[in-house]
From TrEMBL, chain A:
It comes from Rhodobacter flavimaris. Keywords: Cytoplasm, Nucleotide-binding, Oxidoreductase. Residues 33-380 form the FAD dependent oxidoreductase domain. This is Sarcosine oxidase subunit beta family protein. It holds the Pfam family DAO. It is found in: Cytoplasm.
UniProtKB/TrEMBL annotation, chain B:
Keywords: Oxidoreductase. The keyword Oxidoreductase applies. It holds the Pfam family GCV_T_C. Residues 493-577 form the SoxA A3 domain. The keyword DNA-binding does not apply. Residues 882-969 form the Aminomethyltransferase C-terminal domain. The lineage of its organism: Bacteria, Pseudomonadati, Pseudomonadota, Alphaproteobacteria, Rhodobacterales. SUPFAM superfamilies: Aminomethyltransferase beta-barrel domain (SSF101790), FAD/NAD(P)-binding domain (SSF51905), Folate-binding domain (SSF103025). Belongs to the GcvT family. This is Sarcosine oxidase subunit alpha family protein. Residues 593-864 form the GCVT N-terminal domain. NCBIfam families: soxA.
Automatic annotation (TrEMBL), chain C:
This is Sarcosine oxidase subunit delta. InterPro entries: SoxD, SoxD_sf. It comes from Rhodobacter flavimaris.
Length: 416, 977, 96
C-alpha cells in the first residue's frame, strides 16, 4: 500500500477500513541468506538497504523485543554531519544525503526536518577548533557557517548574552542539520524492508551463535535455531553482551545516557543548539516538547536508567544558556545504553569469524548515522568490501594505531 | 449555585483571582480548579490535537485537561494544573492552546477534520513536494502543536538545592503515610514525611468517612499536633517526590512560594536530594474512567474527584449530577453529593442487579453511551439492554476502579504485576530493595487497610534498620470492598476518549491494532497514548485493557509501559537549583587578580579561571595595540605574567625519580638536584597528553607543572599511577596549584629585576644557569622558589611565593623594575610570545597529536618503560607524517588564520588532499606580520616551500611559506645568556 | 548512587570520578616480549559484563583514594569497595 495525502483522505472518508498492517508478523524460516541481529534503527536500515540496493533476498531481522526498541526508540533525534576527522566526516555527510531523500524513497514521513544545528563558541581556542572543523566539513562537501556573536543573537535573541559565566562569542552553524522523528525512521525502514520481502521477527532473542571451524552457521534463538550464510550484528548498547556469545571481547564499554523532554510548549526553539561551555543540547519537537540532554552518567551500566546528578547538571547547563526556559517543566527522563567505543567512533567490519559481521560502537551518536550505517553494513555484508566512506571503521584500527578520536580523549570511553 | 456547604475552605477570607481576564472570588483552601467550579466555570481548557473544549477531570496532579498559564510576564508558567494551583489573592490565570477565546477556538476546526487526523496519519502524508515539509507543513504543525507558552524572559525567581538524610522517607501524607510516619517517628527514628498537597490527609480530606466515629480531620489535627512535637520528624508539605534513584536517593521538589503572590520573600522552589535508608511509598491511587462516546464533555470527571470537590472544596460542577460506575465506590460519590444537597440524576452501574445505597435512582446493568453539551455537559445517553434514553444533568462522575500509584516503585524498571482480584497493577517484587509500598499504592485501598499497612510497613522498615517500634492505636475506619466489575469501555461508534489531553480514542487503539502496532510501546508511539503532561496516569491501564480485548490476550500479557521519572513535571529552574548565570560554575581568581584589576586589566575565562588577558593603557585604541606593546616590552625589557593557573604537583619520596620516570616519556630520574627538565607525558594509548616541567629540589623532592587545562586530570592520573600501578614505590603526591603564586619574569632585564628582590642569591649565569631551580628567600625573608625556565624564548624565570603574597610580589616587582621596563602582560601576549618561540600549547596538545607530530619523537625513551611508550610505536602513530611547522604569509599583509587547512599550491582542495591545518596564529610584532603554527604533512621537508592555507568557511585562501616553528632566536642563545 | 568508602563510609557517587574496569591495575610490562599485543588488550579490550563489575573510582572531591568498587551493572547494586592500593599491593605480593 502506498502512503499519500490522497490515501489518507480516502481512508478518512471510508472509516479507515483499508489500512493494512505496516508489516507482517512472519514465522521464522529454518534458514536465511542473511540474518541481521537487532531490529533497531541500524538493523532495520541494514535489512532495507540489503534488499533495496544490493538486491539481497532471504533476509531476516531478529529482534529481542519490538521493532525499533533499540536506541532509535530513545534518543534526542538529532541529525547532522558536522564532524572533524576524515575518517568520520564523509561518512556522516553520506548519511545526511540519505536523510535528505529517505522519506520519498521509502514512502513514509519520518519528519526529517533541516532546521539547523548551532554549536556555540565561548573561547578563542574553541573558535579556532570550530573553524578547523567547519572547513573540514566544507572540504567533504557538507555545509557550514561560522557565526559571530551578533549572528547568534539574530537567531536566538533569548540566549544568555548578558549574564553568562561563559559568554557566547559565536557559533558554528550547519543549516542542513536538524532532527527527524526517531520512531518514524525505524518504522519507515521496517515497512520498506517488509515490502521488499524481509522477514521482521519480533520477540526473537538470539541466545548463541553456531560456529564451526571459524565460520558462523547460524544463530540459536528463543524461537529455535536459524541457519544463515551471513550474520550481521547491529545491537548497539548490547554489543559486548552479544559478541561475547561469539567469544569476542570488544573495544567497547556500555554506558547509560539520559535524555529529557519537557512538557509541550508553543514553538520557541527552531533548530538544535549545543552549549559549548556546559553539557547541554536542545531542540524542540513538532509536538512542542523541548528535547534535551547532556553528558553520559559516566559509569558502566546496562540499567537503562540514570541518576540525579546528571539530571541536575543538564538542567544547570540549560538554565545557564537559556534562562527563559526555567518555567517549563521536565516531563520525562529516560536512559539508553550506549556502546561507548574506545575512540568515540563506530565499528563496521568483518570479524575474525567468517560470515559474522559487526556494526557497533556508535556511542551516543548512532541515530544520525542510521541511514548510512545500514547502507554501509549492507554493502559489507553483500560484497565483503567496505563502503568507501566507512572504510576507516575497522576493528583492527586500535591495534594498528589508526584511531578516529574526534574529542582527543584517548582510550577512556566515558570521556568521548 | 455550585458552592456547597462545609468543606475545608476558610470562608472568613475572600481571595480575588482572574481567569481569562474575568474576575472571580474564592477562599483559602481552594485550588484554582475548585474555585472555578464554585464559580460555575466548567470549561477550563482545550485538548492538544482536536482542540476539544475540556473541563477539569481530576482533583489532583494527574489532571489531563485543566491546564492553564499561571501568572503573567516573566513568571508566566505554562501547563499548570488548575487542580494543583493553590488559590492566592491576585492570582491570574489564562487558558491556553487556543486561537481566539476559550469558548470559540478557531483551531477547533481540527475536531471537524478529525477523521483525517487518525493515529499515525502524519507518517503517511506531507511527503511531496520534499521542500514543503520545512517550509509549509511542519511550521503549520508546530504552530498548532504545543500547549502553553513561555514568555521567553529569564526566570526572575530564586531557587535552591538542599540535601537531606533520614532513616525513613514516607512518600505521601494520606492514611497510609500518616500511619507510617506516626509509627516511625514515635520510635525516635529520623523520619521525613513528604506530601505533594498543601494539606496533610490525602484522600481522607475528600471522604466523608469517620475515624473513631469522628470526622477524619479531627484525627489528622491531633496527629499534626503530635508531629509538631517530634524533632526527629520533618513534615514537608507541598513537596513532590518525583524520582527514585539508586541506593535510596530520591529527588523531591518543595514548592516553597508557589502559593503566594509574587515577588517572593524566599525562593520559589527547592530541589531536595533525600538520602533515606528506607522508604515507604504511600502515594495512593488514581481513579480510572470508562470511555464512551463524547466522554470528554466539560463537566464529566472522575467520581472520586467529584467527591473531593464536594467534601473538601465545597464545590460541585453542577446542581444535578450523574454517576457512571462499575463498582460500589461510585455510589459513595452519589451519597456524599446527595448529602450536600446536590441532585443525583442517577447512578448508571454496569453491574446488573445492584441497588441504590441511598435515595437516588440506579440504572443497573446499564452504561453511558453518549454525552451532549459542547462547552458543558447537558445530557447523557443511558443504554440498557439495547434501549437508550437521555438523562439531563450538568456533570457526570465516572468510577472505573482505582490504579495504584506504583510509579516511584517502578523507576528502577521493576514491572508492576496484575492483580486479578483488584483488577489493577500492583507493585511487583522487583522494586528497589530499600522501598516498601503501603496503602492504596499497594492495592490496599480501604481506609482501615491503608492505615494498617502503613503502620506495618513502618514497623518492618524500622526492624530492618535494627530499631524497635510499636504499632500505634489506629483509629477505627471503614473497610469495605468496592466490588468492582471488569468493565473497561462502552462499545459504540462515536469517538470515546482514552487519553484526553493527547486525544487518543478507542478508535485510535483499534486502528493501531489493525495496522499491527500492537506491542504496547508501538501502541504508545503510534497513537501518542500516555505521552501527554499526565504521562497517561488516567489513560494507560484503560488503553491496555482495550488492546487486550482486541488481541484476545490478557491485560498483563499485553504489557505495561515503563515508568520513568519525574512522577509529575518539575520546573527546569529548580532542577538547575539556582546555579545559573554567573554562578553556573565556580570562578577561580589568580593571586594577582586584585592587582591586575586595579591596573585596568581585561579578563578572560580560562576554564574556571579568570585570567588577565591584556592591560590596556590610556591612548590605546585596540586590543592588538596593547598586546603588541606588551610583547615588545617583554622582548626589549622585562615582562611579568601571572602563571599560577598552571598545575603544580609536589612529588616526594625515595622513589620520586623512578615514579616520574615511568610517568613521563622522557627520563626524569637522571635529573640533577637543582635542575629543571621539560617533560612530555603520553596517555597509555601513546598520544601526547600533557607537558610541563619537572624541577628537582632535592634527591627525594620534585615539583612538576602541568598545563592549566589539565591540572585536575593530570593530578588524578598521577594518583592512579601511584595507587593503582606502582603502589610499591615510596612516593607521595599533593596538588599545590593553589598554594603557590607563580609569576613569569621574562626578557633581557629579567635577571636585573630579580636581583633587586632576592635575598643575596647569586643569579649569575654560572651560579644559576638555564634550567636551574632553587628554593630561596626574596623581599627580605619571604619563602620562594625560583625556576630558570622560559616559555617566551627570552631570558626568563618563574618565581613562586606562597599564594597570599602573590599580589604584593607582583606590585613590588613592577615598582622596583620600573626603570628596567617592567611591564605586566596578559594571556594574549603570552600566546604571541609562545607562538613566536614555537612552543606547543592547548591548540597543539589537543589529545589527537603525537610526540612525533610535536617534533619530540626522539624524547620518547626506548630504554625504559613509561606510560604510553609501547602504544606510541604502533604503525598508525609512527606512520604519521604531519609535524609542527611555522607558517608566514608570502604577502605580509595577508592574515594567518587558525583553523585553516593546508594544501599544496596546485592541489584540488578536498578531504583527500588535505595536508594539515593551522593550530595557532597571531600577529607577531617581532616578525612584523601574521604568523602561525600548524601540523603539515612532511612539514620539515617542506620548509622554505609555499603552501595554501584554505579557510573556505570565511572565503579566505592565503599563500604561506613554511618555516621553522621558532620565529625568535632559533638557536636559543637568549635563553642561556 | 552511594559508594561505601572503606575509610569514610557511604559517600555520594558525585564526589567520585569514574575510570573503568579494575583490570586497568594489571598493566603489562612494556619492556617484555609481546608488549604490543599485551598493551592492545590492556588499553582497548573490555569484558564489559552485564552483571558484576569491578571498577575504578577516584574520590576526587574527597580523600583522593582510588577505590575498586564491585557493582552490578544491571541493577547498580554495590557489593563492596576496597582501596585500589591495597588490591594492587596484594596482587604484586602474590606475584613475587
Amino acid at each position: 500500500m502506498r502512503f499519500s495525502g490522497f490515501r489518507v483522505v480516502k481512508e478518512a472518508l471510508t472509516g479507515h477500513k483499508g489500512w493494512r498492517p505496516l508489516w507482517r508478523n512472519p514465522a521464522p524460516q529454518p534458514a536465511y541468506d542473511y540474518v541481521i541481529v537487532g531490529g533497531g534503527g541500524h538493523g532495520l536500515s541494514t535489512a532495507y538497504h540489503l534488499a533495496k540496493v544490493f538486491k539481497g533476498s532471504r533476509i531476516a531481522v531478529l529482534e529481542k523485543g519490538w521493532l525499533g526498541s533499540g536506541n532509535i526508540g530513545r534518543n534526542t533525534t538529532i541529525i547532522r554531519s558536522n564532524y572533524l576527522l576524515p575518517g568520520n566526516e564523509p561518512f556522516y555527510e553520506f548519511s545526511m544525503k540519505l536523510w535528505e531523500n529517505m522519506e520519498q524513497e521509502f514512502n513514509f514521513n519520518a519528519m526529517v526536518s533541516q532546521r539547523g544545528i548551532l554549536n556555540l563558541i565561548h573561547t578563542d581556542a574553541q573558535r579556532d577548533a570550530y573553524r578547523r572543523r567547519g572547513n573540514a566539513m566544507l572540504l567533504a562537501g557538507a555545509d557550514a557557517e561560522l557565526l559571530d556573536r551578533d549572528g547568534v543573537r539574530g537567531m536566538y535573541p533569548w540566549l544568555n548574552f548578558d549574564n553568562a559565566r561563559f559568554p557566547i562569542k559565536g557559533g558554528l552553524l550547519q543549516r542542513r542539520a536538524g532532527t527527524a522523528r526517531h520512531d518514524g525512521v525505524a518504522w519507515g525502514y521496517a515497512r520498506g524492508a517488509d515490502l521488499l520481502g524481509v522477514d521482521l521477527i519480533q520477540n526473537c532473542e538470539v541466545t548463541g551463535f553456531r560456529i564451526e571451524n571459524g565460520r558462523v552457521l547460524g544463530v540459536e534463538t528463543s524461537r529455535g535455531y536459524i541457519g544463515a550464510k551471513k550474520v550481521g550484528v547491529a545491537v548497539a548498547g548490547s554489543s559486548g553482551r552479544v559478541m561475547q556469545m561469539a567469544g569476542m571481547r570488544l573495544p567497547i564499554e556500555s554506558h547509560v545516557l539520559q535524555a529529557f523532554v519537557s512538557e509541550g510548549l508553543k514553538p520557541v526553539v527552531d533548530g538544535v543548539i549545543t552549549f559549548g561551555a556546559g553539557h547541554f543540547y536542545v531542540s524542540q519537537s513538532d509536538k512542542g516538547g523541548l528535547v534535551f540532554g547532556g553528558d553520559i552518567d559516566g559509569y558502566n551500566s546496562y540499567a537503562q536508567r540514570g541518576n540525579l546528578p546528571v539530571i541536575e547538571d543538564v538542567a544547570e547547563g540549560g538554565m545557564a544558556l537559556m534562562p527563559a526556559i526555567g518555567r517549563a517543566r521536565l516531563l520525562r527522563a529516560w536512559g539508553g545504553i550506549m556502546d561507548m567505543s574506545m575512540d568515540g567512533s563506530p565499528i563496521i567490519d568483518r570479524t575474525p569469524i567468517e560470515g559474522l559481521y559487526l556494526n557497533a560502537g556508535w556511542c551516543y551518536g548512532g541515530f544520525k548515522a542510521t541511514p548510512a550505517s545500514g547502507y554501509a553494513f549492507a554493502q559489507l555484508l553483500a560484497t565483503d568490501a567496505p563502503h568507501p566512506t566507512a572504510s576507516a571503521y575497522r576493528l583492527d584500527r586500535f591495534a594498528r594505531g589508526y584511531v578516529i578520536d574526534e574529542k582527543g580523549m584517548g582510550a577512556q570511553p566515558n570521556l568521548h | 449555585m455550585t458552592r456547597l456547604s462545609g468543606g475545608l475552605i476558610d470562608r472568613s477570607q475572600t481571595l480575588r483571582f482572574t481567569f481569562d481576564g474575568k474576575s472571580y472570588t474564592g477562599h483559602p483552601g481552594d485550588t484554582l480548579a475548585s474555585a472555578l467550579l464554585a464559580n460555575d466555570v466548567r470549561l477550563m481548557g482545550r485538548s492538544f490535537k482536536y482542540h476539544r473544549p475540556r473541563g477539569v477531570f481530576t482533583a489532583g496532579s494527574e489532571e489531563p485537561n485543566a491546564l492553564v498559564e499561571l501568572r503573567t510576564g516573566a513568571r508566566q508558567e505554562p501547563n499548570t494544573r488548575a487542580t494543583m494551583a493553590e488559590l492566592f489573592d491576585g492570582l491570574s490565570a489564562n487558558s491556553q492552546n487556543r486561537v481566539g477565546s476559550l469558548n470559540f477556538d478557531l483551531l477547533a476546526v481540527n475536531d471537524l477534520a478529525s477523521p483525517f487526523f487518525a493515529a499515525g496519519f502524519y507518517y503517511k502524508t506531507f511527503m511531496w513536494p520534499r521542500a514543503f515539509w520545512e517550509k509549509l507543513y511542519e511550521p503549520m504543525i508546530r504552530r498548532a502543536a504545543g500547549l502553553g507558552s513561555l514568555s521567553m524572559q529569564a526566570d526572575p525567581d530564586a531557587y535552591d538545592k538542599g540535601f537531606l538524610h533520614c532513616d525513613l522517607l514516607v512518600i505521601g501524607g494520606g492514611a497510609a503515610g500518616l500511619a507510617a510516619a506516626l509509627t516511625a517517628a514515635r520510635s525516635g527514628a529520623q523520619v521525613i514525611l513528604a506530601d505533594e498537597d498543601f494539606r496533610l490527609g490525602g484522600r481522607l480530606l475528600s471522604e466523608s468517612h469517620s475515624l473513631n466515629d469522628a470526622p477524619a480531620t479531627d484525627w489528622i489535627a491531633a496527629l499534626e499536633a503530635e508531629f509538631a512535637s517530634l524533632p526527629n520528624l520533618r513534615v514537608m508539605r507541598r513537596t513532590t517526590v518525583f524520582g527514585t534513584f539508586d541506593h535510596g536517593i530520591y529527588g523531591a521538589v518543595e514548592r516553597v512560594s508557589d502559593h503566594l503572590a509574587a515577588p517572593f520573600a524566599a525562593v520559589r522552589q527547592t530541589l531536595w536530594r533525600i538520602t533515606a535508608k528506607r522508604a515507604i511509598l504511600a502515594a495512593g491511587a488514581t481513579e480510572r474512567h470508562i470511555p464512551f462516546a463524547n466522554n470528554d464533555r466539560p463537566g464529566i470527571m472522575l467520581a472520586g474527584a467529584m467527591r473531593s470537590y464536594a467534601n473538601r472544596f465545597a464545590a460541585s460542577p453542577a446542581d444535578r449530577v450523574a454517576i457512571f460506575t462499575n463498582n460500589d465506590d461510585g455510589h459513595r460519590t452519589a451519597l456524599d453529593l446527595a448529602a450536600k444537597g446536590v441532585e443525583i440524576a442517577g447512578v448508571i452501574d454496569s453491574r446488573a442487579g445492584v441497588r441504590a445505597l441511598g435515595q437516588y435512582p440506579v440504572f443497573a446493568g446499564a452504561m453511558v453511551s453518549d454525552a451532549k453539551g459542547r462547552l458543558g455537559l447537558t445530557r447523557l445517553q443511558v443504554t440498557r439492554d439495547g434501549q437508550s434514553h437521555w438523562l439531563d444533568c450538568g456533570a457526570l462522575g465516572i468510577a472505573g476502579g482505582w490504579n495504584p500509584n506504583v510509579h516511584l516503585a517502578s523507576h528502577h524498571r521493576g514491572r508492576p504485576v496484575w492483580d486479578e482480584t483488584l483488577l489493577s497493577f500492583v507493585p511487583g517484587q522487583d522494586g528497589p530493595p530499600v522501598m516498601s509500598v503501603a496503602g492504596a499504592a499497594a492495592g490496599k485501598g480501604s481506609t482501615h487497610a491503608a492505615l494498617t499497612s502503613g503502620a506495618e510497613a513502618a514497623l518492618a522498615a524500622l526492624s530492618e534498620l535494627g530499631r524497635t517500634a510499636t504499632l500505634p492505636d489506629l483509629p477505627r475506619a471503614e473497610d469495605a470492598p468496592i466490588n468492582q466489575q471488569a468493565f473497561w469501555h462502552v462499545p459504540g461508534k462515536g469517538r470515546a476518549w482514552v487519553d484526553f489531553q493527547n486525544d487518543v480514542t478507542v478508535k485510535d487503539i483499534k486502528l493501531a491494532h489493525q495496522e499491527n502496532m500492537r506491542p504496547v510501546e508501538h501502541l504508545k508511539r503510534w497513537t501518542t497514548l500516555g505521552m501527554a503532561t499526565d504521562q497517561g496516569k488516567t489513560a494507560n491501564v484503560t488503553a491496555l485493557a482495550v488492546m487486550a480485548e482486541l488481541t484476545g490476550k490478557s491485560i498483563p500479557e499485553t504489557g505495561t509501559t515503563i515508568f520513568r521519572p519525574p512522577y509529575t513535571g518539575v520546573a527546569l529552574s529548580v532542577l538547575g537549583g539556582g546555579d545559573t548565570g554567573k554562578h553556573f560554575r565556580p570562578t577561580r581568581l589568580t593571586p594577582t587578580h586584585d592587582w591586575a584589576k586595579a591596573q585596568g586589566a581585561v579578563f578572560v575565562e580560562v576554564g574556571q579561571w579568570m585570567r588577565a588577558q591584556y592591560f590596556p593603557r590610556a591612548g590605546e585604541t585596540t586590543w592588538r595595540e596593547t598586546v603588541d606593546r606588551e610583547v615588545l616590552a617583554t622582548r626589549a625589557g622585562v615582562g611579568l605574567c601571572d602563571v599560577t593557573t598552571l598545575g603544580k604537583v609536589d612529588v616526594q619520596g625515595a622513589d620520586a625519580g623512578e615514579f616520574l620516570n615511568r610517568l613521563y616519556a622522557n627520563a626524569m630520574a637522571s635529573l640533577k638536584v637543582g635542575m629543571v627538565r621539560y617533560g612530555l607525558m603520553l596517555r597509555e594509548d601513546g598520544h601526547a597528553y600533557d607537558d610541563g616541567t619537572c624541577a628537582r629540589l632535592a634527591e627525594d623532592h620534585y615539583v612538576v607543572t602541568t598545563t592549566t587545562a589539565q591540572a585536575g586530570p593530570v593530578y588524578r592520573h598521577m594518583e592512579y599511577a601511584r595507587q593503582c600501578l606502582w603502589p610499591e614505590l615510596d612516593v607521595q603526591l599533593i596538588s599545590t596549584t593553589d598554594a603557590w603564586a607563580q609569576i613569569s619574569v621574562a626578557g633581557p632585564n629579567a635577571r636585573a629585576l630579580l636581583e633587586r628582590i632576592v635575598d643575596g642569591f647569586d643569579l649569575s649565569n654560572t651560579a644559576f644557569p638555564f634550567m636551574a631551580c632553587t628554593e630561596l628567600t626574596v623581599c627580605k625573608g619571604l619563602r620562594a622558589r625560583l625556576f630558570r625556565i622560559s616559555f617566551s624564548g627570552e631570558l626568563a624565570y618563574e618565581i613562586a611565593v606562597p599564594a597570599r603574597y602573590g599580589n604584593a610580589l607582583m606590585a613590588q616587582m613592577i615598582e622596583v623594575g620600573a626603570d628596567l621596563g617592567a611591564t605586566p602582560y596578559g594571556t594574549e601576549a603570552l600566546g604571541v610570545l609562545r607562538i613566536e618561540k614555537g612552543h606547543a600549547a592547548g591548540n597543539e596538545l589537543n589529545g589527537q597529536t603525537t610526540a612525533q607530530m610535536l617534533g619530540m619523537g626522539k624524547m620518547v625513551s626506548t630504554k625504559k618503560d613509561a606510560i604510553g611508550a609501547v602504544m606510541s610505536r604502533r604503525e598508525g602513530l609512527s606512520a604519521e607524517r604531519r609535524i609542527l611547522v611555522g607558517l608566514m604569509p608570502v604577502d605580509a599583509s595577508q592574515p594567518v588564520v587558525a583553523g585553516s587547512h593546508l594544501f599544496a599550491p596546485d592541489a584540488e582542495q578536498k578531504t583527500e588532499t588535505d595536508l594539515g591545518w593551522i593550530t595557532s596564529a597571531c600577529f607577531s610584532p617581532h616578525v612584523g606580520s601574521g604568523i602561525g603554527l600548524g601540523f603539515l604533512a612532511d612539514g620539515t621537508a617542506r620548509i622554505g616551500q609555499e603552501i595554501i592555507a584554505a579557510n573556505p568557511l570565511q572565503g579566505q585562501s592565503v599563500r604561506l611559506r613554511v618555516v621553522s616553528p621558532h620565529f625568535v632566536d632559533p638557536e636559543g642563545g637568549r635563553l642561556r645568556d | 548512587m552511594l559508594i561505601p568508602h572503606p575509610l569514610l563510609g557511604l559517600r555520594d557517587a558525585q564526589e567520585f570520578t569514574y575510570l573503568g574496569d579494575a583490570a586497568l591495575l594489571n598493566r603489562p610490562d612494556g619492556m617484555a616480549e609481546g608488549a604490543a599485543e599485551a598493551f592492545n588488550d590492556y588499553v582497548y579490550l573490555r569484558d564489559n559484563p552485564a552483571g558484576v563489575h569491578r571498577e575504578l573510582w577516584f574520590h576526587e572531591q574527597g580523600d583522593r583514594s582510588w577505590l575498586i568498587v564491585t557493582r552490578n551493572t544491571v541493577t547498580h547494586e554495590i557489593l563492596g569497595a576496597e582501596l585500589a592500593r591495597d588490591v594492587a599491593l596484594a596482587a604484586k605480593g602474590g606475584a613475587q
